[in-house]
Write a structure and sequence with these properties.
The chain is α/β, with parallel strands linked by helices and 302 residues long. The protein has three domains: 3-84, Arc Repressor Mutant, subunit A (Orthogonal Bundle); 92-159 and 266-299, D-Maltodextrin-Binding Protein, domain 2; 163-261, D-Maltodextrin-Binding Protein, domain 2 (3-Layer(aba) Sandwich). The chain contains ten helices and 14 strands. A hairpin with a 4-residue loop joins strand 1 (49-51) and strand 2 (56-58). Helix 1 (3-16) crosses helix 3. The longest helix is centred in the first third of the chain and has 25 residues, at 60-84. The chain is elongated and about 80 Å long. It starts with a helix and ends in an 8-residue tail after the last helix.
Length: 302
C-alpha cells in the first residue's frame, strides 16, 4: 500500500472508529489496515492511534495529522486527476441508497445510463425508506429528502418537494372540496403507516401558524404506491410527496387539494462522506445524475 493510500486509510479509520469498518470500506482486511497504519507510524516516528480492546483513540499527533489530511487530501486528488486528464475510466463498485419510490422512478434510469457508459463499474442500489448511516453501512452516495441534520457529510442540493394532499375528481365531486384542514374530519382518509390508530397531518397556511389535525383513517396501508392507487380509484384523500403524484396530477386522475395549507418545501440532496477522497466512480455518477435531476419538474416545489 503506497503512502497516499495509507494516509487515506488512516483518515477513514478516524471517521469510522474501527479498523474493521474502515477496512471494509476500502475492500481491505482489518489485518492489512492495521499493518498499514503501523508502517505509517514507523515512517513518521510517532504513535497515531492508541489501540485498546474496546475502541481506538487518537494521540495528539494523530489528531494533528487528521486535521492536515482533511485539508490537503482532496486537493491532492484533484491535482492528480487534472494531470492525468481523468483518462482512466472508473472501475469497481458503487453503493447508492435512495428512498424506495424515488429510487424506482428517478434513480434507476440514471443507474442504467451509468452502467451503459462505465462498463467496468458495478452498482449496488439500496432502495429503502429507513434512514441509512453511510459510514456504518458502507454507502458511497445517498439521496435524502428533508432537512439534513448536522454531520460531516457533503451535500449537493437537487431541488425540493412538498407534502401534498390528493384525491380523485370523482371522489371530490361526491364528497365535496375541503376548504380547510378541519374539514378533513368529514372525509375518507387514506393513511400510509404501519401503526394502527389515528394519524396526525401537519398543515401550515402561508404566513400562518402550523397546525396539526388528528384524523381517523378509513383505509390504512403500508406502501405509498397503494395509497396513491386507492386515491386515484376514488377511495379518499391521501397525503403524499409531490414528486410521487406528478404524473397523476398532470393527467387529471388526481387533484391537489388544500394547497394553501401545505407545509414548507422539503429539500432534496445527494449526500456523501467528506472524510475520504471522492472515488472516481462517485464523481462520475454525480456528474451524470445531478444535471438531470436538477432539471426535473418534480423537484421544483420551492
Amino acid at each position: 500500500m503506497d503512502r497516499i493510500d495509507s494516509l487515506t486509510l488512516f483518515l477513514s479509520i478516524v471517521d469510522h472508529g474501527t479498523f474493521v469498518a474502515a477496512a471494509r470500506r476500502i475492500g481491505q482486511s482489518p489485518a492489512t489496515a492495521s499493518r498499514a497504519v503501523g508502517e505509517l507510524e514507523a515512517a513518521l516516528g510517532v504513535r497515531l492511534i492508541e489501540r485498546t480492546t474496546r475502541k481506538l483513540a487518537l494521540t495528539d499527533a494523530g489528531m494533528r495529522l487528521a486535521q492536515h489530511l482533511r485539508r490537503v487530501l482532496p486537493d491532492l486528488q484533484n491535482a492528480m486527476l487534472d494531470v492525468a486528464g481523468q483518462s482512466a475510466a472508473p472501475t469497481g463498485r458503487l453503493r447508492i441508497s435512495a428512498p424506495r419510490l424515488f429510487g424506482r422512478m428517478h434513480i434507476m434510469p440514471l443507474v442504467y445510463a451509468y452502467l451503459d457508459i462505465y462498463r467496468a463499474m458495478r452498482i449496488e442500489l439500496n432502495l429503502s425508506d429507513r434512514f441509512v448511516d453511510l459510514l456504518e453501512d458502507g454507502i458511497d452516495l445517498a439521496l435524502r429528502i428533508g432537512q439534513l441534520p448536522q454531520s460531516t457529510l457533503v451535500a449537493r442540493r437537487l431541488g425540493a418537494v412538498r407534502r401534498v394532499l390528493v384525491a380523485s375528481p370523482e371522489y371530490l365531486k361526491q364528497a365535496g372540496m375541503p376548504k380547510a384542514p378541519e374539514a378533513l374530519a368529514r372525509h375518507e382518509i387514506i393513511a400510509v403507516t404501519s401503526q394502527p390508530g389515528d394519524v396526525l397531518w401537519r398543515f401550515e397556511a402561508r404566513g400562518g401558524k402550523p397546525q396539526t389535525v388528528k384524523l381517523e383513517p378509513r383505509l390504512q396501508v403500508d406502501q405509498m404506491e397503494v395509497a396513491i392507487e386507492a386515491a386515484a380509484g376514488g377511495r379518499g384523500v391521501a397525503a403524499v410527496l409531490s414528486y410521487q403524484v406528478e404524473q397523476p396530477i398532470r393527467s387529471g386522475s388526481l387533484v391537489r387539494i388544500l394547497k394553501a395549507f401545505e407545509p414548507p418545501a422539503l429539500p432534496v440532496h445527494f449526500v456523501f462522506p467528506t472524510a475520504r477522497l471522492m472515488a472516481p466512480g462517485v464523481r462520475a455518477f454525480l456528474d451524470l445524475a445531478v444535471p438531470r435531476l436538477v432539471r426535473l419538474e418534480a423537484l421544483r416545489e420551492e
